[in-house]
Amino acid sequence: MWLSLALALLVMRQKRFASVFFIALLGLTLGWWRGSVYIKQLAAYQPLIKRPVIIIAQADTDAIYGTRSQLSFDVTRINVQEPVQTVLVGKMGIRGFGEQAVYRGDVLQIEGKLYPTRGSRQANISFAQLKVLQRSTSTIENLRRRFQTGMLSALPEPLASFGLGLLIGQRNTLPQRVTNQLKMVGLTHIIAVSGYNLTIIMSAVYLLLKKRSKYQSTVLSLALIGLFLLFTGFSPSIVRAAIVSGLTIMALYYGHRFRPLLLLLLAATLTAGWYPIYIWSDIGWYLSFLAFFGVLIIGPLVIKRAYGNKQPRFVTVIVIETLSAQLMTLPLIMYIFGEVSIIALPANVLIVPLVPLAMALSFVAALGGMLVPAIAGWIAWPAKILLTYMLDIVALLARVPHALASKSLPLPYMLMIYLIVVFVVWVLWRKTRQKNDIITPKRAKIAPGHPDNL
User: Fold this and answer.
1) For the chain: N or C, fewer Cβ within 10 A?
2) Residues with Cβ within 8 Å of residue 197, at least 6 apart in sequence
């Protein structure tokens, strides 16, 4: 790692290809070292597999009632007390009894038998004995719970849980029937907190402060991003979105622009470098970046190729971005889950344009439930009408025969599809670049005093 760093510094201002090569080599060796450290830390799980353990950990999510009336939630900051004293990295799923409620941030003692698992969690404990040692005193957590209570006071179920899913990505309280319907029509992404939520928030800040100070707009935007992270938790998609939004805001403040691919790679490097488990076992991290690649790179290329300098209609943009995101995520979904929604496109066209308005009305309804619960029902009726319409459309589309088709994709075919997509994107980029190069010299022939040059 140090050798590659020294070589990169040595040739940085002399040979561009060599400097890029050694910088890439530096990144790979740094990632290899960081990953090897995490592998050694994950090895601490092996002696505990299928053994009774006593751990002290912090709840990472609010608990809900799962199978056999067990409280179900995730924990981090895991300290094993018995049979050995050690610290475990990563996340663990917990299901058990002994407490009436567990909230995010609570510190618990958990007793049960530890089992390995797959995915973003490194292990799980079922039928555990739970004991809360310390309740969370965080102001943010108290505000979040009051906000949730306000939403539940203002709207009936499942509208309240759906509104919380749109606003802060909380979907563990959503009824299983609604979750299955959203999955069948390819709309689970609207209740998963992601960059779309931050885009809506940043757009609102821009409209509010566009005629005022750029400094105020930048500070308020960054503060809202930080508050949103604390409010929703540090899921892979929202961390990626926060990094991208923060870098973009700072670049615009200083008068610069990020290249989309550079922004994508930088966000991936920062998130994976901080938490290497994303690369090894978190499918959500991969899906998030694949969808981001489709929306940020493929979508604009297609729009530029099809419409030139003209601005297409909003619905057209939604369709192109939806198709681009699905094009990138569909092969991996088919390979991992063996399922594909055949009506995702019409469902997204009918529902996604309404999400910003639904978020705004749901936020007003929740504030009404927090501050004036006596008249919260009157304040929430616009949100109730819109959320009911959206869920009715989802339920109607979910009744389409074979809406969710079972179709798997072997690994070689998946890799081949992604190679073809990358090649097509490269061709589109080259053609778009050549078109811009042809236009630029013609404009350069205009006399220096011509108004078009001002």
Assistant:
1) C
2) 167, 169, 228, 238, 241, 359
Contacts of 175 (CB under 8 A, 6+ apart): 157, 158, 161
d(CA 335, CA 328): 12
Place of tokens 């009774």: 52
Q: Quick check: 236 and 208 in contact, CB under 8 A?
A: no
Burial of 143 (0-12, 13-18, 19+ CB in 10 A): middle
Say how many C-beta atoms besides its own lie within 10 A of residue 281's C-beta. 16
Check: CB of residue 355 under 8 Å from CB of residue 393.
no
CA 160, chain centre distance (Å)? 21
Distance CA 407, CA 376 (A): 46
- The rounded Cα 319 to chain-centroid distance in angstroms is 20
Position 194 scores a pLDDT of 64
Q: Give the DSSP H/E element, type plus range, for residue 76.
A: strand 71-82
Nearest to 121 by CA among 57, 69, 170, 199: 57
Residue 197: band (very low, low, confident or very high) from pLDDT cuts 50, 70, 90: low
| d(C-alpha 113, C-alpha 132), whole Å | 18
CA–CA separation, 297 and 190 (whole Å)? 21
Asked if 147 and 366 count as a contact pair (C-beta separation under 8 A), the reply is: yes
pLDDT, tens digit, 9 for 90 and up, residues 14-58: 667 777 888 888 888 888 888 888 888 888 898 999 999 999 999
- Name the pLDDT band for 131 (thresholds 50, 70, 90): very high
Q: Are 193 and 235 in contact (CB under 8 A)?
A: yes
Q: What is the predicted pLDDT for the residue at 280?
A: 79
- The distance of Cα 375 from the centroid of its chain, to the nearest Å, equals 35
Which of 217, 237, 219 minimizes the C-alpha distance to 227? 219
pTM of the model: 0.74
Residue 178 gets the label, from left (phi > 0), alpha (psi -120 to 50) or beta, of alpha
- 8 Å CB contact between 222 and 257: no
8's tokens: 């990169």
3-state SS class at 94: strand
- Mean pLDDT, residues 336-358: 83
Query: In angstroms, rounded to a whole number, what is the distance separating the alpha carbons of residues 242 and 264?
Result: 12
Copy the structure tokens of residue 132. 């809360």
DSSP 120-154: T-SEEEEEEEEEEEE----HHHHHHHHHHHHHHHH
Residue type, 28: L
